[in-house]
Design a protein that fits this description.
heterodimer, A: 536 residues, mainly alpha, 0% strand, flat, B: 240 residues, alpha/beta, Rossmann fold, 2 domains, 6-stranded mixed β-sheet, 4-stranded antiparallel β-sheet, globular
Chain lengths: 536, 240
């Protein structure tokens, strides 16, 4: 009976991960799969370079494994902590389970089992990569299995400890919309800085062809020390290279057996609070301006408030928009000189157009929720004395305001850094704006025709992958095509006027914009009046 | 009596081949009148109300609010009524006060009148300090109250409520009933749907009885005292 109940609850948890995902799931697999393959390729290249820098090859391999496992463990621990807080403490279904005759232990076991399953799959995929690192030594398969099993066990045990401060942080940030937005954006910016640093490294690697100067004696000594003392990953790395197996194998097996119990007992407190319906934080007191605004601005304010006060929305829209100019700037700083030095062709303008189209397509992905995020209120809005044109114009206006500011900052930064001349920066801004306008209108219309309303009153919806992918593909084709065209034409014929790029990118964007605007606004009032709901 | 709401032969079906969810419903609601929509679950009360509010498109018939045809002049018609949905739908990321400001903006309520309206409604519905909290943190009853307050910010000629008594505590329920009576006495029209037969009998001048989407009776309850109440209960149980 208990096992049956556990399986029912476990199945529910697993199924809910995929709820409402069809094509989106395949797209996600493709996207993440692509990113994974790219990362593995880079990792293999790096490993080959690192193992070949000289000195003791076995020591290099141990350092590589130990530090890779440490990073992996850190990531999975943070992932486990967030999953525990989300699925055990903050899950909406807890309200229902509090009233159902379900043993809290079985419920907790099912929720943790779901987290373990995903951690296990991730660990298996990540650790398997080590088997292909060309080090010359063979790793016994049973040690591989032991390490794969130990990673989720360790990350869960550490994750549940981390879950307490994570939950405290979530409670602290509740209602502090501006603070959490700034914090999220700063964190995102910092990650981006690290990314640009890594890109810089890749550039050096490609241009110099040698990393030896980077890993001097002092650096290697530091890495060696870090690798040796980064417990417990150094222990797992030792196990993988067959060192002190007599000690580390039983120790790791012990961790695999004991860690889940530690996690289970520590997370029981979380579950108790959730089932007792203890509030996850006090609702904040906020001030609201009550001065009179025209209808359009009232709708615009509503749109802004709705996004800004939903942390996930604020991050995936405003933070991305804030960081987009930095992203373009960093990519330009790496790509511009790289292309010039590798191929001898200066193509700053085409590269800028390509990056602008690509990153604005990514920023505007959020507009695929322009209707769906309203949920039930989209139907209710029909009873207000506002026209469809006003409702949709407010949505489009807010989207365009956000992306315009972002594009403006990006163009100014590129002009100030001398990547572009003033007319070129202006052209990039204009092309990006028209392309974004087309995307926003297209995505809004698609979301209106195929809304994905949340079942919860204040539930959140994910971005529409199909439309996002279409615009990403379009930006890659248009921007990437022009960049390749420029390189090819310059190498072959000696030149490729920037005017062609402006005409082609601008022309295609303008056509897309005309098409999208027509699609959205033609017959909108009638469609709006006919609208009677959507898929949940 | 001048009809604030005129419904003529209203028909609605959700899919073309399905049978009508609402068929041939006709009634009026005059100034100063309270009309109740009564019927069992699935009788078509909420569908009728959603059609009158413009949330659902209707397939046949005519709806006129304060002289404006809902299909021909939708914005003018919508500007003349306030509504409360059965699920107390509101923009939950707004604070109560922010929501009231939004509603006042949408209906064009002058700034000088807003405070006075809010104070009037606060006396009846007593939201207290919660008005400065996010609506997402409100209880069921508090959401009901903020929706009622929002719907009355522009003092509409017609007030439409879908199951208004659900979720209210007895004290608030009494205040709301009293408020409804006073609001109607000031010359406004009220239409509401309810399962609460005593409340309908107590408040309404007339009750429209629906069954399987069709209007089976219109009962006059005005000044009929306990007779009206008994007649309503009798007809209701006969039909359901």
């Amino acid at each position: 009976m208990k096992l049956r109940l556990f399986l029912v609850l476990f199945r529910k948890e697993v199924v809910e991960r995929f709820r409402g995902m069809g094509v989106a799931l395949c797209v996600q697999f493709l996207l993440y799969g692509g990113l994974g393959v790219a990362f593995i390729w880079f990792y293999m290249k790096f490993s080959a370079v690192y193992l070949g820098i000289g000195g003791d090859a076995a020591a290099r391999f141990f350092e590589l494994l130990s530090l890779s496992l440490a990073v992996l463990l850190a990531l999975t621990t943070v992932g486990a902590a967030v999953s525990i807080v989300r699925s055990v403490r903050l899950a909406e279904d807890m309200r229902l389970f509090a009233a159902l005759p379900v043993s809290p232990r079985i419920l907790l076991a099912a929720k943790l089992a779901d987290i373990v399953l995903w951690q296990l799959l991730l660990a298996a995929a990540a650790v398997s990569v080590f088997a292909f690192v060309p080090n010359g030594a063979e790793i016994p398969w049973y040690f591989f299995v032991l390490v794969i099993l130990s990673l989720p066990a360790l990350s869960l045990a550490l994750g549940v400890i981390l879950a307490f401060p994570v939950h405290a942080l979530v409670r602290f940030l509740r209602g502090k919309f501006l603070f959490s937005f700034l914090m999220g954006t700063a964190l995102f910016g910092a990650l981006l800085y690290l990314y640009s640093f890594a890109l810089g490294g890749v550039k050096e690697l490609l241009l110099g062809g040698d990393l030896k100067y980077f890993f001097g004696e002092k650096v290697l000594r530091g890495i060696g020390l870090a690798a040796r003392y980064s417990y417990p990953s150094s222990m797992l790395a030792q196990l993988l290279i067959g060192g002190r197996a007599g000690l580390y194998a039983p120790l790791t097996a012990g961790i695999v057996l004991i860690a889940p119990f530690v996690c289970f007992f520590l997370s029981k407190n979380f579950l108790k609070d959730a089932l007792a319906q203890k509030p996850a934080g006090r609702s904040p007191r906020l001030t609201a301006r009550t001065t009179r605004k025209p209808k359009f601005f009232a709708l615009l304010t509503k749109e802004f408030v709705q996004i800004f006060r939903t942390p996930a929305y604020a991050f995936s829209y405003f933070s991305v928009a804030v960081v987009m100019p930095l992203m373009i700037y960093f990519c330009m700083s790496v790509g511009d000189s790289l292309l010039e030095q590798l191929l001898g062709v200066s193509c700053s303008f085409e590269l800028s157009v390509f990056l602008t189209l690509l990153y604005s397509a990514l920023t505007n992905v959020f507009c695929t929720t322009n209707v769906s995020r309203e949920g039930r209120m989209f139907s209710v809005l029909k009873a207000f004395p506002v026209s469809a044109g006003q409702v949709f114009s407010a949505k489009i206006f807010l989207s365009m305001l956000t992306v315009s500011l972002s594009l403006f900052a990006s163009s100014v930064a590129q002009w100030a850094a001398n990547f572009l001349t003033f007319p070129a920066a202006l052209a990039v801004f204009a092309i990006g704006l028209v392309f974004s306008f087309a995307q926003v209108c297209f995505a809004t219309r698609y979301d209106f025709t195929h809304p994905r309303f949340s079942a919860e009153t204040d539930g959140e919806v994910g971005e529409g992958d199909g439309v996002s992918l279409l615009w990403l593909a379009l930006s890659l084709l248009l921007g990437g095509g022009l960049l390749v065209g420029k390189l090819f034409a310059t190498l072959r014929f000696g030149s490729f006027p920037a005017l062609y790029t402006v005409l082609f990118a601008g022309g295609v964007s303008l056509l897309a914009a005309v098409f999208s605007v027509f699609r959205l606004f033609f017959g909108l009032q009638k469609r709006y009046e006919r609208f009677s709901g959507g898929t949940v | 009596m001048e009809a604030v709401l005129r419904v003529e032969n209203l028909c609605k079906r959700y899919r073309k081949r399905e049978k009508y969810a609402v068929e041939g419903v006709s009634f009026t609601c005059g100034a100063g009148e309270i009309v109740g929509l009564v019927g069992h679950n699935g009788a078509g009360k909420s569908t009728t109300i959603k059609c009158l509010e413009g949330m659902l498109p209707y397939d046949g018939g005519r709806v006129e609010i304060c002289g404006f045809d809902l299909k021909k002049k939708p914005l003018s018609a919508k500007a003349n009524f306030g509504f409360v949905t059965d699920d107390h739908a509101a923009f939950v990321r707004m604070t109560g006060r922010g929501y009231l400001a939004f509603m006042a903006d949408v209906y064009g309520v002058p700034t000088r009148e807003r405070k006075q309206r809010y104070e009037e409604l606060e006396t009846v519905l007593r939201l207290g300090d919660a008005v400065d909290r996010l609506i997402s943190s409100y209880s069921h009853g508090m959401r009901q109250k903020i929706c009622m307050m929002g719907s009355l910010m522009h003092r509409p000629g017609l007030w439409i409520l879908d199951e208004p008594m659900t979720g209210l505590d007895p004290l608030t329920m009494r205040s709301v009933k009293e408020f409804m009576r006073n609001y109607a006495a000031e010359g406004h029209a009220i239409l509401f749907s309810s399962h609460d037969l005593p409340a309908v009998a107590e408040l309404c001048d007339r009750a429209v009885l629906l069954k399987q989407g069709k209007q089976v009776d219109t009962l006059s309850l005005k000044s009929s005292g306990t007779e009206g109440k008994e007649a309503l209960e009798e007809r209701y149980f006969d039909e359901t």
